[in-house]
Amino acid sequence: MKxxxxxxxxxxxxxxxxxxxxxxxxxxxxxxxxxxxxxxxDFNSDEAKICLTLLFALQQGLExxxxxxxxxxxxxxxxxxxxxxxxPEDGEPTKLESLLxxxxxxxxxxxxxxxxxxxxxxDQTSPAIVGEPESENxxxxxxxxxxxxxLISEILNPWIESTDFPISKISDSSPETLPYQSLILxxxxxxxxxxxxxxxxxRSLEKELSRxxxxxVETQEFNxxxxxxxxxxxxxxxxxxxxxxxxxxxxxxxxxxKTRVIANIVAHYLGSGGDLARLKVMAPTGxxxxxxGESLKDLVKDSNFAEQVNEGLVSLQTSTIHRAxxxxxxxxxxxxxxxxxxxMIVIDEASMIDLGLFLNLxxxxxxxxxxxxxxxxxxxxxxxxxxxxxxxxxxxxxxEQAKPVVLKQNYRSNVELQALASAVNESRFSxxxxxxxxxxxxxxxxxxxxxxxxxxxxxxxLSHWCDHAYLEGKDxxxxxxxxxxxxxxxxxxxxxxxxxxxxQYQVLCATRQGAGGVNQCNEIFQEKFxxxxxxxxxxxxxxxxxxxxxxxxxxxxxxxxxxxxxxFENSKGxxxxxxxxKRVGLHVDGFTLIPVHSLNRYEFAYAMTVxxxxxSEFQNVLLSAPNTKGSLFNRxxxxxxxxxxxxTLCILADPKDLAIASQTVRKGELVLNLS
Length: 675
Description:
Elements: H1 14-20, H2 30-39, H3 46-63, E1 69-70, H4 71-85, H5 95-102, H6 106-112, H7 116-121, H8 148-162, E2 167-170, E3 184-187, E4 192-195, H9 196-213, H10 233-244, E5 247-252, H11 258-271, E6 279-283, H12 286-300, H13 307-315, E7 319-320, H14 321-325, E8 344-347, H15 355-363, E9 370-375, H16 388-396, E10 405-407, H17 415-425, H18 429-435, E11 437-439, E12 447-450, H19 455-471, H20 477-483, H21 492-502, E13 505-509, H22 518-533, E14 547-550, E15 564-569, E16 575-580, E17 586-588, E18 591-595, E19 602-604, E20 607-609, E21 618-624, H23 635-642, E22 645-652, H24 655-663
Parallel strand pairs: 2-3, 5-9, 5-10, 6-7, 6-8, 8-9, 11-12, 12-22, 13-20, 13-21, 21-22
Antiparallel strand pairs: 1-4, 3-4, 14-15, 14-19, 15-16, 16-18, 17-18
Helix pairs in contact: 2-3, 3-4, 4-5, 9-15, 10-11, 11-12, 11-13, 12-13, 17-18, 17-23, 19-22, 23-24
């Protein structure tokens, strides 16, 4: 078998290197290895240009969470290539060159191809013209008007039929084995491309969900007497849907009572005779699963459930999806041939679930298991490919037997933050400006934007936030941590106060690198703390007042990826990390103290990415996004950051970038056809 080269050949043309410099594909990626192997020595051919731009378009789609891309997505990369190459000087242009150099206006391509599926289906007698020149004088020599149909029939289809590159054309009549024989698939009916592995995963998920919807799952009749009497009508509908439907979705923003809905779903299941051992409540991350378990226990204290139900909620063991199906570095422990013995699963923070993880979960479910997905459809989609939550929600909206439920009533009192989140979601920039006061200093109001674009202003603003949040005043967070040195073990009230202070302020960043990113913020804060303490430490050294986020799961010690806590020194000079909840360590009621020398992987968490903040809430939030542009700063990221704040929000950014972000949507949608 031939070994593929994973390095760029010496004769790679400059235009390929320029495209690679856009950081869409890397030399070590397998598709690029296939490309280099097939086209070395012939990179300037039309076939090579078609292939490479398609790879770039698919990779960009993956970065946005897309399982498949449209013809227009590919054509934008052809346009990018045209701008790099320039118009050929000699000879008659090829069909592809005619496309590249006749249709250079990307915005025109975007608008004309916005509905590529309809264009592809138009009759050839009335072709849809892509980028038609404004006048005869503007048309370059040899230009032809190319419709989507012509692109497919005259360029794409001949290439697919003749190329050695592993791409295949797929249709309803294609054999089941075809996706396994190709790297890329072209769906002519939908005029879309996809990497075959994701195409197969999507089709497999559709089959699994259809199996569950049409299977012999036992449902329950909704009994209102089994749930809390103070639920609003939307919340009751959500509980009823979980009882009566084999697959149900509940979506709602922060403050709409999703956790209370989950508690009532569990209460209704148990009250209807359900077996606690055959119920699994889970979340995508260890942190989210742990917080959910603690919140359910807290809800029991003021609920009016039956005693048996309360006991079930208290003893309920929440889990990550990975742990539930035994998914580690190898294949899952549970699968189609060895399914989980469950009647019902409830998944919180379901907007974080990607296609591959959810497919593994569905494969592990038997014929008689109900699925309930709970999340926020407006939050960030998962980091990996395929937004399952929005995909299932959209698919169920077309089915009579399983309509999704959206929770709209918000119980939070901060109307300014609610108004801003709503304006961002609906891309109403005039209202966004109305909600935000543009200031040049902190503490300017509950919701304000601090304009900072130059490095000096950014650093000054972050230093000021650190002083205000952690260091200033006799009751500061740092002074509190220093006060714990008076005793060997802090008491319950002290630890409660410590976490209240820690959660008062949080910096959230759009990126890790660059000005205002996570790394810079944490370095500034570490230096400020060390100046205040009068000591100098190594970059990785721990000290009193350090705020940490743990990385990776340690199920034996009940430590989870994303757990946060603070470091203090006791009277014996020992450094401990304080964590909420009961873990393996020194217990102080609902808290655990862990010696810092026993910690494995962690990083400082005065600042964290918006992605890592999902599932958490803070009283006061600084969103640091100066000079953040492009798809990284989008509507979902902005909405997620806004909804982490409970009292005040300061946005460190150029107000113009907020307008762009509110109109930039990270797609990630997963189109599912269920029946």
